[in-house]
Write a structure and sequence with these properties.
Length: 414
C-alpha cells in the first residue's frame, strides 16, 4: 500500500489548514496508508473531538523541533518579555515554518510516495516521490519584497531568508500547486508565476438548520488585534453595541472560536469579555464540534469581517482567502452578511444567498433588513444551504482523492 504524508505544522488553532488536514487524512486513509505530520504535541483524540471526524487508521508523526520548542519556551518566560513587546512571539511561532528546510532529511527518511504540504508559508523542498503544495496564500519568494509586513517583521524575514527561502528550484519540486480560492490562485500566478489548481477548502456540513433564534453568530480564532489575520471580533461587537433597535427586539450576538497558546490571544479574549459586559453578547471560547454545530443551527444571521480596514490589493494577506466558517454557517441555514473582499466574493452571492458589505453602515443596514423581514431571511437561508454544497468537505475530499490518484496511479483528474 502506498504511503501519503500530510504535513501540517500549525495544529493548535483549529483553523482551515487543520481542518483540511484531518479531512484529507480520513478520506485518503480509505485507499492509502496515511501519516499526519505535526509540528507540535497533539493527539488524534483532540483532533477528532474538535473536528468531529473519525481518524481511525491514521498515524501521527511528531516532528523533532528542539530549537523551536526551546525558543518558544523562552519567549513565553518572564525573561522573554522584551521579545514579546517586539512581537517576537509571532516571529518565533513562525520558526515552525521557517526551519522546515531543516526537516527535509527527517521527512525524506519516511519514504513517502506522496507528500502533501498543507502548511502556510512553507519553504520546504518536496521530500516525497510526488508532491502537492496546498497554498492558502503565496508568500514572497527569494528576492521579492514584503510590502505588507511591518518593519520589525520585515527585518526578521530578511534575516531568515539567508537560510530559509522559497526559490523557483524548490517550487519546481512540487508536481501540483493548489489554491483555496480564485483570489489565492490569482496571487499565486502573480507572485510565483505558477498556475494553481483550485481546491476549495473543506467546510463541514453543520446542518440541518434548527429553529432559528434572534441570534447573530461569528466564528473565528481569538487573535490579537495587531496580527495580520485578526478576525475583528472587537469591531463586530462595537457595531452590535450601536444597534440598540436589534437589542430591543431581543437579538443576541454570539462570538465563538478557539484560543491560541500565545498570551496575546488570551489577553484579547479578556478585553472582549470586558467590552461585552452588560450586553446580550455571549463568548464561546474553545468549544467542541457539537456545541459549535448547535450554535450554527440556532443562528439566523452570520457575520464576518476579516480584512476590514485594509486593501485587498495592498494588503492581501489580511483578507479571508477562502472563509470556511462562512460556508459552515451557510450549510446550517444562517444567512451570511460578510465583508466584500477576498474569497468571500466566491462563496456569497450578494442578494441571493446572503449579503456582502463594504462599510460598517452597510453591515448594519443588511442586518436590519434581514432581522425585520422573516420571509426574506428564510428565502436566503434556503439558498445559502444549497450554495454551500459546492464547498463541502465531501467535494474537497473527492478533488484531493482525484489529484492523489493522478499522481500515484496515473489516473486522469476530473
Amino acid at each position: 500500500m502506498k504511503t501519503v504524508g500530510i504535513y501540517c505544522v500549525d495544529t493548535d488553532g483549529g483553523g482551515g489548514a487543520e481542518r483540511r488536514s484531518v479531512v484529507m487524512a480520513r478520506s485518503l486513509s480509505r485507499r492509502y496508508s496515511v501519516i499526519l505530520i505535526l509540528g507540535q504535541q497533539q493527539s488524534l483524540s483532540d483532533l477528532e473531538r474538535y473536528h468531529g471526524i473519525d481518524l481511525a487508521g491514521v498515524r501521527l508523526y511528531q516532528l523533532k523541533l528542539p530549537i523551536q520548542r526551546a525558543a518558544w519556551r523562552f519567549v513565553q518566560s518572564p525573561a522573554g518579555a522584551c521579545l514579546r513587546f517586539a512581537r517576537a512571539d509571532s516571529m518565533l511561532r513562525n520558526l515552525r515554518r521557517d526551519l522546515d528546510p531543516f526537516y527535509y532529511r527527517e521527512l525524506r527518511n519516511l519514504g513517502l510516495d506522496l507528500f502533501i504540504n498543507n502548511t502556510f508559508g512553507s519553504n520546504i523542498r518536496n521530500p516525497g516521490r510526488r508532491g502537492v503544495f496546498m497554498c492558502m496564500f503565496p508568500h514572497p519568494m527569494q528576492g521579492q519584497p514584503y510590502p505588507w509586513f511591518g518593519l520589525t517583521h520585515s527585518l526578521y524575514r530578511s534575516a531568515v531568508r539567508r537560510f530559509s527561502a522559497l526559490t523557483p528550484e524548490i517550487l519546481n519540486t512540487w508536481d501540483v500547486v493548489t489554491a483555496n480560492s480564485k483570489f489565492t490562485a490569482g496571487w499565486i500566478e502573480r507572485m510565483w508565476n505558477r498556475r494553481a489548481e483550485i481546491v476549495y477548502s473543506a467546510a463541514p456540513d453543520m446542518g440541518p438548520a434548527g429553529t432559528k433564534r434572534n441570534m447573530i453568530l461569528h466564528v473565528g480564532r481569538f487573535l490579537s488585534e495587531v496580527r495580520t489575520d485578526y478576525k475583528h471580533q472587537g469591531t463586530l461587537l462595537e457595531v452590535f453595541r450601536k444597534m440598540t433597535d436589534l437589542r430591543d427586539r431581543n437579538w443576541e450576538l454570539h462570538l465563538a472560536g478557539s484560543v491560541m497558546r500565545e498570551r496575546s490571544s488570551r489577553r484579547m479574549l479578556a478585553r472582549l469579555g470586558e467590552a461585552a459586559r452588560g450586553l446580550p453578547v455571549h463568548i464561546h471560547a474553545g468549544i467542541g464540534f457539537e456545541r459549535l454545530r448547535s450554535l450554527y443551527r440556532d443562528a439566523a444571521i452570520y457575520w464576518h469581517a476579516t480584512g476590514y480596514g485594509t486593501s485587498a490589493d495592498l494588503q492581501p494577506l489580511a483578507q479571508e482567502h477562502f472563509g470556511i466558517t462562512t460556508v459552515e454557517a451557510m450549510s446550517a441555514g444562517a444567512v451570511p452578511v460578510v465583508i466584500d473582499a477576498g474569497g468571500q466574493t466566491e462563496t456569497v452571492n450578494h442578494g441571493v444567498n446572503g449579503f456582502r458589505w463594504r462599510s460598517l453602515d452597510q453591515l448594519s443596514e443588511y442586518t436590519r433588513l434581514l432581522a425585520g423581514d422573516r420571509a426574506l431571511r428564510e428565502s436566503l437561508s434556503r439558498q445559502a444551504v444549497a450554495g454551500s454544497a459546492m464547498f463541502s468537505a465531501e467535494a474537497f475530499a473527492q478533488r484531493i482523492a482525484r489529484i492523489a490518484a493522478s499522481l500515484l496511479e496515473g489516473e486522469e483528474p476530473v
